[in-house]
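Entry 12.
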Amino acid sequence: MDRAEVLSKVPAVTLAFWVIKILATTLGETGGDSITMTWLGETTSRATGYGYLLGTVLVLVPFIALVIAQIVAKNFQPILYWTTIVASTMLGTTLADFADRSLGIGYTGGSSILLLCVLLVLGLWYRSQGTIAVETVNRPSTEMFYWATITFSQTLGTALGDWLADTSGLGYLGAALVFVAALAVVAVLYFATSVSHVLLFWAAFILTRPLGATVGDFLDKPFNEGGLNLSRPIATAVITAFIVGGISLTPQRAGVHPKTNQAL
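Predicted 3D structure (tokens):
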């Protein structure tokens, strides 16, 4: 390896990365809903707010433990990284549902607040480190910014997915297609223009979350709500198997960042 390059503690951004990321976000939706709506009871969640709050606490504790383990780890560990990503998507699901439904902020208000949080963390990260490129995530200081951005973006993605699916009349499948189209635009900008690849990465990262959220809702919501009414625990188990297979069968290597290229 060139001495001008350093290994990141997050994976290289490849096609396999995006496939697993979308699966992880879908798993976060079905898994989070399994906790708050299936295991804790949807009636309790909606009537008192305790279901969403308790579900958030139940996911928050292992998520914090996983982030600490990720920071303590000396190098990129695929299983640890993707488990932490899944935990962040589940936390995003329960936290967004708690804010939007139990606190009464609503999808529009919740999405607006969370977007500001994402932009604030990215701004602080850039001011502190001079870059927000994920390939530079190899020190505790950058990892803290990275996982804070991840957490807010996952929660924002859940709120965006719910907002578009529930308020636009498109339904879950229609909303999913909108996010697929948006990701296609990002891909075109990436390959055909000089727009910052770092900014496009974060745009794609945020957009994959509502895509996964709407697909997850499409799978497990009742027929009368536009879903397929599949069992949430079974859907969660099947998606988990696909993720494990994806991690096992595709190359999982750490990202590499040339120190000489500190673009945004």
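Annotation: Residues 9-244 form one domain. DSSP finds nine helices and two strands in the chain.
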